[in-house]
Amino acid sequence: MDKEVTIYDIAKNIGVSPTTVSRALNNHPAVKEKTKKKIFQAAAEMGYQSNVFAANLRSKKTNNIGVIVPSLNSSFQASVLAGMEKVANEAGYNLVITQSLESSEKEIANTRSMFKSRVDGLIVSLASEAEQLEHFEPFHKKGIPVLFYDRIANSRDSVGVTIDNIQSAQLATNHLIDQGCKKIVHVLGSTKISVYAERLKGFKYALIDKGIEFNEDQIIVLNEINENAAEFVIDKVLQMNPLPDGLFVSNDACAASCMNQLIQKGIRVPEDIAIVGFNNEVISRLVQPKITTINYPGFEMGEVAMKNLINYLDESETTLLQNTNKITLRSDLIIRESSIRR
């Protein structure tokens, strides 16, 4: 049987000290990138297997952070994960990513498997069906930090990173009112999800504030708000009498698709119906006319969430809930041609 390769063998092979090899394999910042590369290459060629498991047992740390997203099929979630990955990578942590597919059952199963695999911390954006939060209790009991982002839980044991969805929806609606819109339809996802419930509040506040009457038929709630829902939305819109003159859609892909449907049916955007989206996704800048939208800083949200979690893990005497259990990021209205009615 072949003798197992050790750090001493690698050190001897490339002429560095065993301490340098050990540090490089643990991604220590004191080792130069060039040396690190050389060591990793030698380790791979010599068939070195680091005994991560034994090291983890000693340190009681896995250096893994669990992330549960509602769906990976979203450019917003992709940018959040990119922000998380950047920060985690720099700090020597790995991400273990799973998706709940908007199902609370799957979210509970994912949470259990994360707990069993002993992640050091957990970051979650809640599934639309998630109503109970008991499945996070084992983490709280064991002192494993849980942090929510975007769709956050009202829980005193956890921190949430979000934007001010009420204010963002007010900004979007006020802009349409300022453009002369009198009948605005708001298209949103399930109001069981905190972000959509808050945007609906903001929409209503803006109307009340400007003395515009609000009717329930001005709201179209979708199980899934995406480009595939546009046909259903526009069918409903075109049945309204009088026709709306403003459309505030809580997702850019859906907004772009709604705009295409309207243009195909001979309705002019923004002259007949002005449109505002949400998220500032790439699609909002690719279509004609370009879509006015709320800039939702996904990458920054990922960075902030991960930084807070890692700060807590690296300095456990600090508390995750230092001054507040909610971090609110800034979001802005980006005005483009889809809503400007001259």
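Above is the first protein from milestone M3; the second protein from the same milestone is given next.
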Amino acid sequence: MATHAAHEEERRRIQFDKHLPVDHRLNQVYRFGAGLMGLVLIAFGILGLIGKVGFFDTRGDQIVGLNTNGALSVLSICVGLLLFVGMVIGGNFASTLNMVVGIAFILSGFLNLGLLDTDYNFLAFRIQNVLFSFIVGLILMVFGMYGRVGSALPHDNPYWRARHPDLVEQEPREQGRSAAMARDRSLQPPEDAR
């Protein structure tokens, strides 16, 4: 009984790499999303550090239309490197990382929106930073959720298969039945020949 429950749990667990080849388009989307956003954040962080703004300077300095200081620049580089790690690993890790970092960006946008024009604005956020945070968060979440959620996922999708194990077992039987019915129809003579 315990082995059956363990087998059932293993079958339900989503194992992206066991179901699809490494070059599957879902894996490519997750990697591309993590790499692209990581590159944007690292470039922003490096440009901010080059400007030699104070580490916790709440006035900040303008870099490519966004306000920054040393702390925000270092934080951007660290998050960008983390996304690059997700790009290298790929699979479920990259997808989940994209979603988690995306949610963190959205929460950061709301938090920093409340801290605008206060003494606690240690990352020197301005309204354009808040909007950028929301946009990056949404983009990362879309990249992370692509092919994972939705009502019209294809039946070869590993996430659909993990959510519908009973239907996965029925599909081969139904396909075999459909093929047999088609074969029977092709063997019957046309009605006008009867």
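Note on the second protein: The longest strand covers residues 61-63.
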